[in-house]
Amino acid sequence: MGRRLQLIPWKTAGRVSEQYASADEVIRQTGWVFNNETGSQLTVDEFVATGDNEVLAYLEVFGLRPPDNDTRTVVEIGCGIGRMTCGFSNEFAIVYACDLDAGFLERCRETVARFGKVDHLRTIEVADGRTLDVPTDVADLAFSYITLQHCESDDALHLAAESVRVVRPGGSVALNFRSRSGADVLLLPTGALIRSLFRIPRFGEWLAQHRTVARLAWQANRLQPDTVLRSLPVGLTDVTIWRHPRSNVSGIGAAKGTFEGINPHHWWLVGRVALPACEPANG
Ligand SMILES: C[S@@+](CC[C@H](N)C(=O)[O-])C[C@H]1O[C@@H](n2cnc3c(N)ncnc32)[C@H](O)[C@@H]1O
C-alpha cells in the first residue's frame, strides 16, 4: 500500500503533462517537475540545454567520459520527459530510458526525436516502481538523477540493486540521492500526508499543478551511503561519494569527491561493478 502511494503523485503529474498540446507548453507548465525552472517564456530548447550541460558535467567530473562512449550503452533511471536523455542519446550508442510513467516516456521519445538521436533510444516503463525490464549485464553505465530520493526507501534500494544487475562487470553506476537535513522532521511526515491526498479523485490533478504541495508529496527517503552500499547484492569497487564542498556526507571505505555543481543537499554514489573473482581486471 505505502509503495503504491508513492507512485501516485508521479503518475498524476504524467497525466497532467499529457493535457498540454506542445512540448513548450509542457515545459512552461510542468518543467519544474524536472529541473525546478518555471516561467511563461521557457522553451523546450532551453530545457534540453540544461540537461545537455548536466550530462556532460557529471560524466566529465565522475570520469565516465572515455572516448568510446559512442559504442557504449547507458541505462537512465527516471528519465522524465527526456531533459537529460537527449544528451545521453548523443553521447552513447544505446540509451535505455526508464520511467514510472508511460506518458513521460512518450514525451521523452518526442524530445529525443527533436534534440537527440532517437534511433539510440529504448524506452522502458518501470511499472512496479522498482524493477527494470532491461537485460542483465547489458550496460556500461547506469545513471539516475533526482529520482531515487522520490522513491520509498525499499524501492530506491531495489532500483540501486537493479542498476548493478544491468551493468556488466567492470561497468559503472552513478546514482544520485538526497542527504538528511533538520527540516526532514517536518518535510517527510508532511510529504506522506499530502501523498495520501493524491488518492482523492480529481483533487490529485489539482495538487499536481501546485508546485509547492506536489514537491512536498515527492519527499520520500533520505538514504545514506552506507545503507545503499550494504544493500547491494554485488559489490562495487572504486567507490566515490561525490558531494558539494559544503556537505560532509561520506561512506565507510569510500573515497570522497567534491564538485561545486552538485546540489548541497544531494550526494552521488559512483562506483564500478566488481569483476567476478577469477577474471583479470582489464575488461
Ligand atoms: C524530478 S524528475 C527527474 C527527471 C530527470 N532525471 C531530470 O533530471 O530531468 C523524477 C522522475 O523520476 C520518475 N520516477 C519517480 N519514481 C520512480 C520510480 N520508482 N521508478 C522509475 N521512475 C520514477 C518520475 O516519473 C520523474 O519522471
Please explain how this structure is put together.
With 283 residues, the chain is α/β, with parallel strands linked by helices. Helices cover 41% and strands 19% of the residues. The chain has eleven helices and eight strands. It has an eight-stranded mixed β-sheet. Strand 1 (73-77), helix 5 (85-91) and strand 2 form a beta-alpha-beta unit. The radius of gyration is 18 Å and the shape is globular. The structure holds S-adenosylmethionine. S-adenosylmethionine is lined by residues 10, 33-35, 78-80, 83-84, 98-101, 104, 126, 129, 145-147, 150-151, 155. Residues 10, 33-35, 78-80, 83-84, 98-101, 104, 126, 129, 145-147, 150-151, 155 line the site of S-adenosylmethionine.
List keywords for this structure.
alpha/beta, eight-stranded mixed beta sheet, binds S-adenosylmethionine
Mean pLDDT: 90
Radius of gyration: 18 Å
Strand arrangement within the widest β-sheet reads 3-2-1-4-5-8-6-7
Helix content: 40-55%
Q: Helix segment count? A: 11
Tell me the number of strands. Answer: 8
Describe the secondary structure blueprint for this structure.
Layout: H1 2-18, H2 23-30, H3 32-35, H4 44-61, E1 73-77, H5 85-91, E2 94-99, H6 102-115, E3 121-125, E4 139-144, H7 153-166, E5 167-178, H8 184-197, H9 203-208, H10 211-218, H11 225-231, E6 236-243, E7 255-258, E8 266-273
Parallel strand pairs: 1-2, 1-4, 2-3, 4-5, 6-7
Antiparallel strand pairs: 5-8, 6-8
Helix pairs in contact: 1-6, 4-5, 5-6, 8-10
The structure holds S-adenosylmethionine.
